Amino acid sequence: MPVPQPSADAAPRRLLRDVVFDKMLAAIHDGTLQPGERLNDDELVRWLGVSRTPIREAIAKLVDYGLVEMEANRYTRIATPTGRQYHEAFSVLFGFAELAARWAFPRFTDEDTDALDALLADVRTHAAARDRAVDDDVHALIGFLVDHADNALLTKLSASVLARARFVTVGSAEPVFAAAADAVASLRDAATHRDGEAGAAAVRALADGMADHLDAVRAADLATAEPEEAALVITSGPGI
Question: pTM for the full model?
Answer without folding.
Answer: 0.74
